[in-house]
Structure formats: C-alpha cells, structure tokens
Amino acid sequence: MAPTKVKTEEPELPPQKVHLLRDVVPPTDLDPIYSNYQTGVPIALDIGCSSFKIGLTNSPEPHNIFPSVAARYRDRKALKTLTLAGKDVYRDSLVRSSIKTPFDGPLVTNWDYMEVLLDYSLAHLGVVGDNGRLNNPLILTEPVGVPFSQRKNMYEILFEAYQAPKVTFGIDSLFSFYANSTSSTASGLVIGTGHESTHVIPVLHGKGILSQTKRIDFGGHQAEQFLGKLLSLKYPYFPSKLNAHHTSNLFRDFCYVSKDYQEEIDHILDMDKLEEADIIVQAPVEINVGTEKKKSEEELARQAAKRREQGKRLQEQAQQKRLEKLIQKQEEWDYYSKFREESEKLNKSELQARLETDGFDDLADFNKYMSGLEKSLKKAHDQDIGEGDNHEVDPASAWPLLDTPDDQLTEEQIKEKRKQRLHKANYDARERSKELKRQQEEEKAQYEREQQEWREKDLEDWCNVKRIHLAGLISKYKESIKLLESFKDRKSAAAQQRMKNIADLANDESGSTSAASRKRRRNANSTIDNDPNDTFGANDDDWAVYRDISNQKIEEELGETNQEILSLEEELLKFDPNFHHEDTFAASQTFDWRNSVLHKFIHGPRQNITIAMQAEGINPDEIDNHPEIIRKNHQIHVNVERIRVPEILFQPHIAGLDQAGISEISSDLLNRSFGSSFYEGGDSLNLIRDVFVTGGLAHLPNFTTRVTNDFTSFLPVGAPIRVRTARDPIGDSWRGMQKWASSEECENSYISKADYEEYGPEYIKEHGLGNVSLR
C-alpha cells in the first residue's frame, strides 16, 4: 500500500497592513502674506528645483515655502487668463493639467515662469517697492558650476526688472553645512543630495573646494521617476495610472538605504524577510456590491418559464426548417437516384446530354454532387435524432402510406409518403439511439458494480491499480507534449518526418510516380472536384497526411488522455484516503508560489487570491467580479524597489548611469586628490572628521549608517570618521543663508547694480560658500 501522506497545516499569518496610495492634497489655506516687512533687511531666497523658500534674514525661519511650479489657466466665463503659482495650482483639478516648472534639470529654461515665481515670492513677503524698485539686498542659491547664461539672465531680472540694490549667490548644500557648523572655518566633506543631482563637495577651513567637487546625475526627481518605471514594468496592466505625486509619496514613505545591499537583496524575497519588507499600497477603487435590487423567487420563476417557452419555440422553428430542407434534399436524392439507375441504359453521348440538361458538367461532377448530398442527408438524420415529438408513436398506424405503391397514390399522397418515410427513418434512428444508450448505461452500471465490489473486497489493491494506471496515462500525456514540442525544433526526427510529408505532397502534385499517386490516378473517376488530373482525396487514406502535418491526431489523443486522467483522479479523490488535491496531475504542473520568485516579487508573502479561488473551482465570472479580487487588482507590492532605488546613489550603474557612486567618489577624493593625508593636520583627516549629509534624500533611513560602513571599508584602520545629517536637510540651506547674511564675508560678496552695469554679468565676487570664476 502507498505510504500515507501526512498533511502539515500551514501556520496562519497575520493580515498585512494596507497603505493607501496618496495623491497631492489640495491646500486648505492660502499662503500667508508677511506683515512685518522691513526695508533694507537682506532677503534670503533659496531657489530650488522642487521648492522656493523665502524670508527676511531678521527672522530665524523662512516666511514662505511653496513648490516651484506655475500654471496658466483660461477662464472662459470671465475671458481672462490667470497665472497661478505655488500651492495655488493644486486647488483646481483643471489647472493641474497645465502645471509647469521653470526648470529643465537643474537649470532654468522658462524665465517667464521664473519671473512669475519671483513675483509670487516677493508679493507674499509683503515687499513694498520705491518707484518700482526693490529696497532689499538679495541672497540667492544657484547650482554648482552654474553656466554663465544662467547668471546673466538672473542678473537681468534682478537688476533691470526689480532694480535690486545688490545681489549675491551661494550653493545650497554649503549654506546647509554653514548652518550646522559652530565655526565659520569648519572643514568637512559635504554630500548634497538635491532634487536633480547629487554633489560631493570637500570643504576646508570654511571654503568649498569646487575644483575637486564631483557630481552624480541622480537626485530625488530621478529616484521618483525610476521608481515609477520599475512599478510600471512590474504591473504593466495596473488599472490605475500612477502619476508623479504617487511615486513621489511612495518613495518618501517606503524607500530606505540598505546597510548591506548585496546581502539584503540576496535574501529580501525569503519568506521571513519578505514578511517585513513587503509593503502593500492600495489604489482607490469603487466596488459596487449589492446595489442591484434582488428579484423575488416568483419573478425568477416567471423569467425562467419565459426563457423555456422561448427556447422551445425556437427549437420548433429550427426543427421545422430542418425538416423542410430535409424533405427537399430527399426529393432530390430520390430523383437523382432514379436518374442514376436510368443512366446505366444510356450511351455516353446521351448521358452527357442528360447531365448537361440537369446542370452538371460531366459524370464526375454528378458523382461529386451525389456524394455531398448523401453526406448532407446523413448529417441531417443524425442531427434530428432525439429532437422529435416526445409523445408515443405507434409504428403500425403512424405511416399508413409507406406500404402503398406509388402508382396507386396521387401526387399529393406521394409527397406525403416521402414525409412519412423521413419521419419513419427518424423514428428508427431514435429507437436505435435509445437502445444504444440503454446498452451503454447497462455497461456503465455493470462496471460501477464491479468497481464497487472490488473496492469493498480490497481497497488497497484497487487504489494501487488505479494509481499505476494514472501514472501510465500521465507518462503518455507527457510523451505527447514532448512530441508536440519537438515539432518546434526543425532538426528533430518528428519535424523531419513532417517536412517529408509536405515534400511528398508537393511531389504528388508535380507528377509523382509513387504507388499512392498511381493509385489516386487510377481512381480518377472518384475525384471530388472537376480537375481530372487532381485525384488527391479520392482515397480516404490521403487525408491522413494533413493530420500528420497539422498535428491534429496528436492533439486529439492529448485531449482524450487528459480527460481520462481527470476522470481517474476524480475516482481516486473520492475513494482513496491517501490521494489529495495536491497529488493531482494539474497540481503537480502548477507552481508552488512559496518557491516562485516572481510570485513573491509581485504578490508578496501571501498566496494570490485569484489562484486560490481558481484551485477551488469557482466560476471564472464570479472570480472576475469578486470584490476582494477587484480590491487586490488595485494593490501594489513594494519590496525590492524599496532598496533598489536609493542604492543608485552608491551604484549608479543600476539606473544605467556610467558614473561612480558616493562611496567610490569619496574614496578617490580622500585617497588620491588629497593624497591620503590621514595624519594629524592632514586634509583627508579633516574631511572625514565631519562627513555632512544634506538635501532631500538625507531623510532616507540608514543613509548615515551606509556612508559610515562604506567609508570604513576603504579608510585606514582606526580612522576617526564621523558622519552626521543636517538638523533639517531641506530647510537648513535657507537657515545657513540667514546666518551668513550677518557675516562680514556676506557684506563683501554683494554685487551692486553699479558693479553689474560697469563690469557686466560675468563679474563675480568669490566667497567660501559660492561658485568661483573659471576665468
């Protein structure tokens, strides 16, 4: 007896937390307008690709922070074009479609929108001008290594449009480092993760060394876009479209920097790890359940009766049409059968004339028509079996005209006799079908009795024999599948034989002298078309070639074998206590989702509910409309992407960037550019004593831990490395500007309107927190 299979129960896992997919939230309040504006106080304006931060430097915090976007909207009722900026663009869904940013990458390309944002900033700061003049010095941020054209355009707006008295520029990440340092001469390695790019800037004695600054063309915006592309590839048929706000929120909420990426990526899809790493995000979906009014049992019964009556009426109409066609064909058969008997007495010329009179080309055409007519009559008789009247028929009195000769009947009675002959033939066919069905039922009942006696007598032997038979059928099924697959390989024996059959067919058409061809030529009178040279098909064996070419025979055998397997498995499931659903052939062909990397990657550490319901045999229509299925189809599983996207900062080749990552760049700076000077007073030692991380991506969990681990791997043993994050990685750039505004260095770095007019836009005053002149 087969060994008993012990089924282990799966541990019940707690339900996973489902997070809602967050979109942009329209602001409820208007941006405030500052009421304590003072003339002459420097205005600090942090111009970022993602947000603007503006405020007077006599305050420790910026007065206004808003996204750096603008939009134009045409009000058709008022016949006015409105220009909106900042948070106001999100208030109306119609305006959102026209949202634009003045930036293309880190550089400004739409200066009209930049002027709109500057107007918006100064207006909400409560700036009061003097004859169109701005009476406050300006401190602004700009990208590292800003092109001359960018500064030139900015000078033109500030000095010519706003009439600003004096302006100075700096780098946001250096301002953030300045805000988080206790000394103006501090040294350190600044890692600035911006919206469009990431920079590694060495700072020595309070001054950024821009000649050794390195850039990675990957920032927060690229990270969000990359996450969106990964999810689009992962869920190509996701019902909802993910926009930039969705991916931005997903990245900020769930992504983190891996402490050891290679180790974590190797095991993140292990069930125990995936249970913690997998995040389910639910997109909005409306599920209408129970909205339709439930019909009463009387209404359902009335509708069912109406459908039955309509079906019966349609059946009667179809049967009447078939009967009329059958009578017509039977009349033709009787006429041409009589003609065939008479044609034996006619000579060849008379026969040909008679055939042409009746519309036939020759005797072959007549034989072809009679063959088709015979098949059509046979098919009509077979189709009509079982569809006759259900009332009892007395064969002795039902068809009184059948035994009467035609010469004793009138023309109408002869027609009626033909109808009765058809009804009699249908009656006989039904009776034969009933008898055959009765015999089959008796044989089936006898087989069931024998099987039941066998099971009662020796269930173990019955199960063993059935399992052996099942194994043989499965082996046969697999061999057929293997044979079908072999046809795809043109070098296989099966494919070669198939090509040989095709070649033989072509050879027959071009004058083959094979035995089969000669036989078909000898049977030319049996051809089914009008070409006397084409005798293919006259012999029934000829058609087997097409079956060999199309694999139809194998596919039919495959279907029959599969049906036998299903029937046998049904018996074993019913009577064999050791045979379970997972022992079936279908279950063995399906994958185990716990061992499927793709399943865990897409569906997480739980079985896909669709597969589970299909395994239970639930109706596919019911599965498609099941509320839980609809809800699951609107879910995203974020797992591998949580660490893959931030890892690009350390391994840019993941996103196709031919650049070095943060750790590799820093290693090259410390060990080569600064000569591995890790002794006391050395530049490399001063840099690693304060590795400073700022910018939006500094909010990612484990960022400083990863930087510490990577730096430790290439630094000398015992090197005193210190990695820290800005107190506010996004807002400290403005606070650094506010702090620097009161310094002597800031006062000496302003470029006045007179300097601009005298020296031109290429004139620059260098300072430790800004760009330098390359001239």
TrEMBL record:
<dbReference type="InterPro" id="IPR004000">
    <property type="entry name" value="Actin"/>
</dbReference>
<dbReference type="Pfam" id="PF00022">
    <property type="entry name" value="Actin"/>
</dbReference>
<comment type="similarity">
    <text>Belongs to the actin family.</text>
</comment>
<dbReference type="GO" id="GO:0030234">
    <property type="term" value="F:enzyme regulator activity"/>
</dbReference>
<dbReference type="InterPro" id="IPR043129">
    <property type="entry name" value="ATPase_NBD"/>
</dbReference>
<feature type="compositionally biased region" description="Basic and acidic residues">
    <location>
        <begin position="380"/>
        <end position="394"/>
    </location>
</feature>
<feature type="region of interest" description="Disordered">
    <location>
        <begin position="380"/>
        <end position="405"/>
    </location>
</feature>
<dbReference type="GO" id="GO:0031011">
    <property type="term" value="C:Ino80 complex"/>
</dbReference>
<dbReference type="GO" id="GO:0006338">
    <property type="term" value="P:chromatin remodeling"/>
</dbReference>
<feature type="compositionally biased region" description="Basic and acidic residues">
    <location>
        <begin position="425"/>
        <end position="444"/>
    </location>
</feature>
<feature type="region of interest" description="Disordered">
    <location>
        <begin position="417"/>
        <end position="444"/>
    </location>
</feature>
<feature type="region of interest" description="Disordered">
    <location>
        <begin position="502"/>
        <end position="541"/>
    </location>
</feature>
<protein>
    <submittedName>
        <fullName>Vacuolar targeting, actin-related protein</fullName>
    </submittedName>
</protein>
